[in-house]
Design brief:
259 residues, 13 helices, 5 strands, mainly alpha, 53% helix, DUF2063 domain-containing protein
Length: 259
């Protein structure tokens, strides 16, 4: 019975998004006028959800272009979760290969930042590391400290374009600077006190957080940062990350990692 119900549900959902079906029960439903109304409602709701989840993308391209692209995405990747705030995890990848977006090489990266905002927004509650506690550590204690990133912290580095500046302007509903320099940029998105915030982040800061996310002690994470940028001011990066609420807690590793 469970298998039969699951098969019916899968066939019904597939039919909603235009797939053909061999399930006679679903086929009978498709022939009813009400099914078309229901299909259109579900389809529109999915497009509406994408528009809500990717506001910077929508502002960049305009509502008509966005909804056309979103409709194409919905046909190939219908929602798998009734909580539509989670919908669109691979929408950035979809935009990256969309033919009509070819002249907008930054669009997929802007979408990735919109997605990180959603992930930060829906992340579980977490503790916040105390900057004073970190500052009070001795040099040896700091070397061994493992800084665990906050559950809502997200970061990304864009190697070839100023995607963060473009995204931030459109997220804030302002204009992209006319003197925009086409250069690499990084971003940090966090939610330290119930509200999602964002700020620029250097390449060294990104690799530092990568190492922390792997559970590496501060000494190893710092080494990664220096390998990325020998002139990095690690103290400034650590201070900025703590201020932004990027860490949840500070633990002590059993020993200093091998260099």
């Amino acid at each position: 019975m469970t298998g039969t119900l699951t098969q019916f549900q899968d066939a019904f959902v597939n039919a909603l998004f235009g797939d053909t079906t061999n399930d006679e029960r679903v086929a009978r439903l498709i022939d009813q006028t009400g099914f078309t109304v229901y299909r259109n409602t579900v389809f529109k709701g999915s497009v509406d959800a994408l528009q809500a989840n990717f506001p910077a993308v929508k502002r960049l391209v305009g509502e008509q272009w966005f909804r056309t692209a979103a409709a194409a995405y919905v046909r190939t990747s219908p929602p798998a979760d009734a909580r539509l705030v989670y919908y669109g995890a691979d929408f950035p990848a979809f935009l990256a290969v969309l033919e009509t977006a070819r002249e907008l090489p930054y669009l997929a990266d802007v979408a990735r930042l919109d997605r990180l905002w959603v992930e930060a927004h829906v992340a579980p509650e977490d503790a916040l590391a105390d900057a004073a506690t970190v500052a009070a550590l001795s040099a040896e204690q700091l070397e061994r400290a493992v800084l665990r990133p906050h559950a809502a912290a997200r970061w990304i580095w864009f190697e070839s374009m100023p995607a963060y500046t473009i995204w931030r302007a459109n997220r804030d509903e302002s204009e992209v600077p006319e003197d925009l320099v086409w250069q690499a940029e990084g971003a940090l998105v966090t939610r330290p006190h119930g509200e999602v915030i964002w700020r620029p982040l250097s390449a060294a800061g990104c690799v530092f957080l990568d190492a922390c996310a792997e559970g590496q002690p501060f000494e190893s994470a710092a080494q990664r940062a220096f390998e990325r940028d020998a002139d990095v001011d690690l103290g400034a990066i650590l201070g900025d990350l703590l201020l932004a609420g990027a860490f949840a807690d500070v633990m002590q590793s059993p020993g200093i990692a091998d260099r």
